Amino acid sequence: MQQKATGLVYRVSIPRYLLGRALGPTWPWLLYGPLSAIALQERPLPKPPQGDWLELKTRLCGICGSDISLLRGKSSPALSPFHSFPAILGHEVLADVVGDQGDVLGGRRVVVDPVISCQMRGVEPCPACATGQSQQCHRRGEKPGLGPGTLVGYHSHLPGGFGDMLYAHRSQLYPVPDAVPDERAVLAEPYSIALHGVLRSVPAPGAKVLVLGGGAIGLLTVAALHRHSGAEIHLVARHPHQRKLGLELGAQRAYGPPGAIVAVQAAVNAQLLRPLMGPPVFSDGFDYVYDCIGSAESLRDSLRVTRHGGTLVLLGTAGPVDVDWSFIWANELDLIGCFGYGRESDGRHTFAWALDDFAAPEGDVFERLVTDRYRLSDYRAAVRRQLVAGPNRPVKAVFDFRS
Fold it and tell me: What is 4-188+344-400's CATH topology?
């Protein structure tokens, strides 16, 4: 008898996409109510292809900003060929391997790398997968085999962690050390995003860096910089509790609005210059800027406060925005786009680095970021809270499947 999974299903359609994009800000209930693109359903758990697949039972799954962007119609339609719907969402997965299944991971807690690789498709590795960079898999838009898809949770045949059961390929799984509690382990996926962004180009000791954004990715970027660089870390975050967490995670300074302007003047004593039109520009800036928001405003600020010859790292999932890119060429900036994680310079996967950081003596600071827990049946309340724009907005909310 085929297994079934109860999960939160995203049902794609152009009308729902346009409705969420146009009217969601005015009537948020359109994003989680009966007319929304999501619904709690029981669906057959598709049997994966032949190969090294294991059945998992979800423990916790984080709610990602990209999930909320999808509901709000903020995700770029240009990426739609690399997903397949309807799908059970959720890609920040902590789970238990069910039984022994003839595998050494039987009964173990694991975190799941949600990237869909050539190995999972059962084909010869493409150039990206062959070098351990499966997040850039060349076959993510192909229909044969598993079908189009970049991540578990955005794939019609590979349910994500917003459901109670899922299958995962052995290559996706990383066992969690016994000393690492669940609320820390569930951050492995978002922390790996931040960590990969830092490891792409590690700031030199003493470099002045600015992190824009006090959400989970911004705060985890502060943590990654603190652990893996000797940089002087400045954080811009909207709310006091975000700034407090940022300082606890390793930032030297934290600023509220209008943070970018205050930060660049405080850190590098830059002269503020007024153009003929538009917001101010500066005579100097930060060596590295990490944009962990991805809005038109944050991108505008990022470009203006990165110094000549500096590096701008895009960690926020920016969609279609209108931005003046003049500073890219005028200041000869290095622009690094970061999506996901993969094999790092030492040959280890980013998830392995993340779990090592979690197991370190000061790793207990991480779980402070998990501020909200919900049962799956309370998904409407969970989404509603994610849409809160004030100081009570959660840092990281999770669905909790533990009994």
Answer: Quinone Oxidoreductase; Chain A, domain 1 (3.90.180)
